[in-house]
Amino acid sequence: MKPMIFRIFTLLTLFSSFALASDRAAIEKLDGIEVFAFGGVGFAGTTSEGEIAFKQVFKSASAESDFLELLKTGNAQSRCYALVGLRLKNRLLFDEQVKSFTSSKQEVQTCAGCIMMKLPMSSVVASIERGNYDKQAMAKPKKLP
Length: 145
Prior knowledge:
The chain is mainly alpha-helical. Helices cover about 60% and strands about 10% of the residues.
């Protein structure tokens, strides 16, 4: 009986360490992401790398603290993803954190469908506050045909 319990414990430990490494990789990916985009992008309408990394961070047990970290260390695009995540995870924390971004003129590289744009962060944040990204953030990623 002891060997079986030991094996199960070992497997659980291995799986949890893989998950932690995977979550950390997603945070690092999101930290330097070049485009803020939800929904299908490009000619094929595929899910952006940022959205995929966002969803991985979002489902992790440490999502709130990870998003707070991204607000401090990330670029404009990753900060927008972090605000979307906080809005969905903890509205009070979002309301507290969003204030410092509502008048920011920093540019955010965005993509909607096939259209790339640079928008002031204040504009993107206003869309986040209205919940414009909520449904897309919660949708399953599109796969290539």
